[in-house]
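Lab notebook, bench 4. Still working through the backlog of constructs that have no structural model yet. Next entry is a single chain of 175 residues. Request: give me the structure tokens for it.
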Amino acid sequence: MSTYTIRRRIDIDAGHRIMTHGSKCRHLHGHRYGIEAVCEAESLSADGEQAGMVLDFGFLKDEMMIRIDRLCDHGFIAAVTDHDLLALFAPEGEEASGWIRRQAEIVARDGACPTTETRLATRLYLVPFQPTAECLARHWFEVLDQPVRQRSNGRARLIGVRVWETPNCMAEYTP
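Model written out:
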């Protein structure tokens, strides 16, 4: 069976830490993340504004910007269980444990919690896992999967997401 494949990449700058890491990654640090979404379809659109396409690159970019860039770029990605770190982000004058508990409820309900209601209004993206490249690839796959199907009228499907932490280190998730 023949398939067509497209790829779209965006880049964001974000900090994180891996609290369970035994070496330097347990420290606060940042990356220039490259995020690539890979989509495929067995046929191209026959008509309309996507005629001859798997999915309009602009549509894919829009979804990546809305669901990844807008929430994470120039922010900090953290595990909701990293209470020592999150205490640093708790709004001034608010009890850290209560604030963390409320954020954890949102993560449990929605799968993530983007917020700027933090000390210094820092952009924070809380997730229910250690924010490794591997886990972020899976998370961003899950975030983009349905929008890709919708924007292509069900013709295209997301088949993988790649996340580069450095020019030499990349993780990929393909279900």
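Notes after review: The domain at 4-173 is CATH 3.30.479.10 (Tetrahydropterin Synthase; Chain A). The chain has a mean pLDDT of 96. Flag for follow-up if needed.
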